[in-house]
Amino acid sequence: MANLNLGENIEVNTELIKKAYSLAIKVHSKSSEKAYDVEGSSRRSSDPIIFSFSGCWSENSWYDGEPFGVTEINLPLLFPSLRSIGVNENALVNKAFLQRFVDKILGNSDFDREVQKAVKENKQILFTGHSSGGSIANLATIWFLEKYLKPEYNSKISPSSPLCVTFGCPLTGNHIFSHSLRRENWARYFIHFVMRYDIVPRIMLAPISSIKLEFQKVLQFLNAKSVNLAHASIDTFDALNFHMKVMKNASSVPFGTHVFCTGNGKLVILRNPDAILQLLLYSSQFCREEECTDIAHRSLQQHFGYESDLQDSFQMLNVVYLESEQLEQLPLSSDSTSSDIATINSALNDLGLSTRARLCLCAAGELEKRKIGNKESIDLKKPDIEKAMKYLEEDYRLNCENRGLGCYDAFKLQETPKDFDANVKRLELAGIWDEIIEMLKRYELPDAFEGLRDWVLLGTRYRRLVEPLDIANYYRHLKNEDTGAYMIRGRPKRYKFTQRWREHADKMPAESSGESCF
Question: Origin, by domain of life (predicted)?
Fold first, then answer.
C-alpha cells in the first residue's frame, strides 16, 4: 500500500484517501437527510473512524444574506482559537456552513457520543467531505482540536491525531481563520484535494451577491450530478458567466495542505496559503477566448471527477512539492529547461500557469521569507530586552528598597538619577515592543509568532515588570485629567497584546490576567 507524503512528517495511505472520497460521495446520494455517516467502529483497532459529512445544494445552505455570506465566529466555548489574539478580532466564516454544523452536527448527541467513544479507544479519527460537506468536515475537525487535542500532543503527529481530508471543498473562512490555524499548528491536519478546473473550491472567492443569478442553476446542476451521477446539463451562457464572475474576485483565504490534481497524473502540493490562493486563481483561467466555453463546462464537470483522477495519480505518485524554497526559484517561463527545475516546470505547465501567475507564486514565497526575516530580526533584540529588564529587576528594585519605596512610588517621584535611568530603560523597551506590535497588526510576522512559548513568557515578564512604571508615569504627568483613566484611554497596546497572549496560551478567561495593573 502506497503512502502520500505531504510534508511535516505526514504520510497518508492512498487507499485511505480513496475510501474517504468514496464515503464522502456516498453520503451525498443517500435519500435521507442525515448530515453525516460514520464508519469503522466495528473494524480492527488499527482502523480509523471515518466521519463523512454530506453537502447541501439549496442556495440558503451556501449563502445567508451578507455579500460574501460570512459571519463573525463569536463562539468562544466552541472555537476559542479562531481569532487574532493581540488584535482581538474574531475570524469570519461562512454563515450557512457554520449554522449547519452547529444545528445538524453538534445538535446531534450521537455525533458527540461517537467521537468520545473513538477518543477513549485511542483510535484515529478522519473527518471527510466532498463539496460543502468538506466545509462541515473542516469545522468538525477544528471543534475536535479545540476540545480534545492536548497541547503536549501538538508538537508532532501521532497515530491518534485527527485528519481532515476534503475533495472540491469551498473555502470556509477569511485570513484570520487561516492565520489562527497556522498559529495553533493545526493547519497540517487538513488535506484538501482540488482538481485543476473545479469551480467549487473557488466559489467563495467572489461575493455571492455577484453570482446569485447563476448560482442556483449551478447548484441544481451539481445536485443532479450528485444524486443521479448522470450527465446533468447547464446552459453554456450560465456556466461561462458563473466561471468568469467567480474568477474576478478574492476574499476568502485557504488553509492546510492543498493537493492540486493536474489532470494527467501529477500532484502539486502546497502549504503556503498565499501561494495556494494564487494557484486557485490562475490554474483555472483560460488563455484564449476559444477556451472559454470548454473550461466553463469542465469547471463544473470536474467537481465529480476526483475518483478517476486520484486513481491515476496514486498509481504514478508523481508528486511536486512547492515549499517556500521552491517558490522563490520558480521558472518564470514555460520554456525553462534547466534540469534542476524541469519537474517543477512541467507541473506548472500542466496547470497552465502564465508568467504572471508564476510571478505571483514567487511573491507569495518572498512574503513568507520576509516574515521569517522579520522574526529573526526581532529575535536578535532579545538580549537587549533581557538586559534592560535585568536592570529594572535587580539594580533599580534594590535601589528603591534601599530608599524604603516600592518601584511604583519611586518612579512616580523621579527624585534620583536611578529613576531617570529606569525611565530610559522603560522607553527603550517600549520602542522594541511597539515595533513588534505594529508588525503583528500588519501581519508581517509568521502566523505562529503569538503562540510561541518563549515570546509569551517574555511578554508576560515584561508586562508585569514595566507596566507599573508606565502607570506611574501616566499619573505623574496628570494624563488622566485630559485623557481619562489609564485602563480606559491610556493603556498601550503592547500590554494589551502581551496580556492576551498569556490568557490564550493558558486558556484563561479574557481580561483575567491584568495583574500588572495592580
Answer: Eukaryota
Between CA 138 and CA 121 the distance in angstroms is 23
Within a domain: 370: no
Task: Answer whether residue 100 is part of any domain.
Answer: yes
223 and 93 in one domain?
yes
Task: Give the bridge partners for 318, in sequence order.
Answer: 266
Per residue of the chain (518 residues), what is the pLDDT tens digit?
A: 578 887 666 788 999 999 999 999 998 776 556 889 998 755 566 789 999 999 887 877 887 766 667 889 988 889 999 999 999 999 999 999 999 999 999 988 899 999 999 999 888 999 999 999 999 999 999 999 999 986 655 555 565 789 999 999 999 999 999 999 999 999 999 999 999 989 899 888 877 666 766 766 777 776 655 544 444 444 544 544 444 444 445 568 899 999 999 988 899 999 999 999 989 988 877 655 556 677 777 777 888 889 999 998 898 888 999 988 788 888 887 666 666 678 888 889 999 888 888 988 998 899 999 999 999 999 999 999 999 999 999 999 999 999 999 999 999 999 999 999 999 999 999 999 999 999 999 999 999 999 999 999 999 999 999 999 999 999 999 998 888 999 998 999 999 999 999 999 999 998 888 877 76
Supply the range of the domain harboring residue 405. 381-517
**Cα–Cα nearest to 139, from 183, 186, 185:** 186
pTM of this prediction? 0.90
Catalytic residue among 54, 198, 299, 419: 198
- Burial of 412 (C-beta count, 10 Å sphere; 0-12/13-18/19+): buried
Number of structural domains, the chain?
A: 2
Catalytic status, residue 303 = yes
**Quick one: cell of 204?**
467563495
Q: Is residue 372 part of a domain?
A: no
Active site residue 192: no
Do residues 263 and 195 touch, judged by C-beta distance below 8 A? yes
Catalytic residue among 52, 54, 131, 513: 131
Residues 71 and 162 in one domain: yes
Q: Which of 303, 447, 513, 516 is catalytic?
A: 303
User: What CATH number is given to the structural domain containing 181?
Assistant: 3.40.50
Residue 294 lies in a domain: no
Catalytic annotation on 198? yes
